[in-house]
Amino acid sequence: MSKVRVLVGTRKGAFILTADGKRDKWDVSGPHFAGWEMYHVKGSPADPNRLYASQTSGWFGQIIQRSDDGGKTWHQPGTPPGEPPAPGPPKAMSNKFVYDASDETGKALTTHQWYDGTQHPWEFKRVWHLEPSLTDPNTVYAGVEDAAIFRSTDGGENWHELSGLRGHGTGPKWQPGAGGMCLHTIILDPGNPQRMWIAISAAGAFRTDDGGKSWKPINRGLRSQYIPDPNAEIGHCVHHIAMNPSRPGVLFMQKHWDVMRSDDAGENWKEISGNLPTDFGFVIDVHAHEPETIYVVPIKSDSEHFVPDGKLRVFRSRAGGNEWEALTNGLPQSNCYVNVLRDAMAVDSLDKCGVYFGTSGGQVYASADAGDSWAPIVRDLPAVLSVEVQTLP
Amino acid sequence: MSSGQSVSMGSKSVSTIRIVLPQHLRTLTHTGSELTLSIEGPVTLRSTLDALEAAYPMLRGTIRDHVTLQRRPFLRFFACQEDLSHESPDAPLPEAVASGKEPLLIIGAIAGG
């Protein structure tokens, strides 16, 4: 029988939740890296036992952790536990994220727009998102703050920036959102290894068609009332983008305000907020087997980061947007004031499709029937930052 | 923990010093709170951190920046009831640290509420 493994990053550690295909009885492992902020934990599609984790701290900076046994044991890539360090220069710098400003391979380290409108130098702060390659367990991408994308091809031991994104020209107009200037979304095209999409708060969405060498903004159709030119090429606060792997050209976006879709790989976007109670939110995801079925969790507003009316509701559209139904069975419908952050929803690929999300109140909810009913796997974790799911044989 | 000492090896002296790590860094090194290091030549913050990172490479970037080697902002270096955080990295550490009588304390700034 198939199994699922849910990888949860929280403000104070990581947790691994496992169940069989029925998804009704769960084992909880953790906290891993207790006390550290775990921004993201994700498994390799090419080797499910290979997990990568972003461990970060305002005191001690960035750490990358790797597991080669499905989360039972972890180590910092290049420094296996229990082995004495080899003499001489270090073989790996798994937490060294240095912007590539070299003349030969990089781009000049320019500035971006600061909160007060002045220009500010790029400064590395943390890894928000890790996206393992679809085909090679040792290749993994990292989306970082201040916004840039890095790649490792040696299992996370060393990282190199794909500097064409930061340096393609619009960087001085990028600005941080309230959470920082983060590159939080990386989507790999299963049918075209040269194509990737990324999203940045608050710059917008970008696409490469040449494996990360060059990038173009893809924000036509986005409209943001809070920037001087609402239809600007860049400057939009994209919160998350999701894609069903079976239809790589169709993208769904939760923007700061507005839920959007694109049917041409991001060239053009149109609004699909429809009858949502509010179109502010962070997460968005797509059903594993029904590419027109999408999920969002509306949040009241940018000044009140909790669900509207004290009700935790997932909204599902089976029509690719515009027509939404509230999913409430098993979710609290009074006195609930939690948030669901941008990387905190995921789907499994079982039949029926499982849907999972985590809240700022420390609950991780699961639905084993595509959202019709929900139950908490755990209720009292630290605030949840990210949720990923692996469907295992 | 026995006190360290300074011995001469060839033309350079070698000191054995003690370092106390904050709890979160101990989870990376998989050690107890106190480490013992041998340092060749003058005992300074720089030579101490160089030796610490050579012995425990998983600490690179966690105490000082990878590139600038500046102390991370929310960390402090204390020893002998003194704050050494703003001292030159090349200034000699107190004799009590160099001799192993007192440990060098690496402290995370206290925050909470």
Short description:
With about 400 residues, chain A is mostly beta strands. Chain A has 1 helix and 29 strands.
General description of the model:
The complex is a heterodimer of chains A (393) and B (113). Helices cover 1% and strands 38% of the residues of chain A. By secondary structure, chain A is mainly β. Chain A has a single domain (3-83, 92-392), classed as YVTN repeat-like/Quinoprotein amine dehydrogenase (Methylamine Dehydrogenase, Chain H). In chain A, strand 23 (314-317) and strand 24 form a beta hairpin. Chain B is an alpha+beta fold. Chain B has a single domain (6-87, 94-104), classed as Ubiquitin-like (UB roll). Chain B has helices at 23-29, 45-55, 95-98; strands at residues 6-9, 12-20, 34-40, 75-79, 82-83, 104-108. The longest helix of chain B is centred in the middle third of the chain and has 11 residues, at 45-55. At the A-B interface, strand 6 of A face helix 1 of B.
Structural class of chain A, by secondary structure, is: mainly beta
The largest β sheet of chain B comes out as: 6 strands, mixed
Largest interface: A-B, 23 and 23 residues
Strand order of the largest sheet of chain A: 3-2-1-29
State the name of the first-level CATH class of chain B.
Alpha Beta
The overall strand count of chain A is 29
Q: Which architecture of chain A does the CATH hierarchy give at level 2?
A: 7 Propeller
Ends apart, CA distance between termini of chain A: 7 Å
Q: Provide the β-strand percentage band of chain B.
A: 25-35%
Q: Helical element count of chain A?
A: 1
Primary descriptors:
heterodimer, A: 393 residues, mainly beta, Methylamine Dehydrogenase, Chain H, four-stranded antiparallel sheet, 1 helix, 1% helix, B: 113 residues, alpha+beta, Ubiquitin-like (UB roll), 3 helices, 19% helix, globular
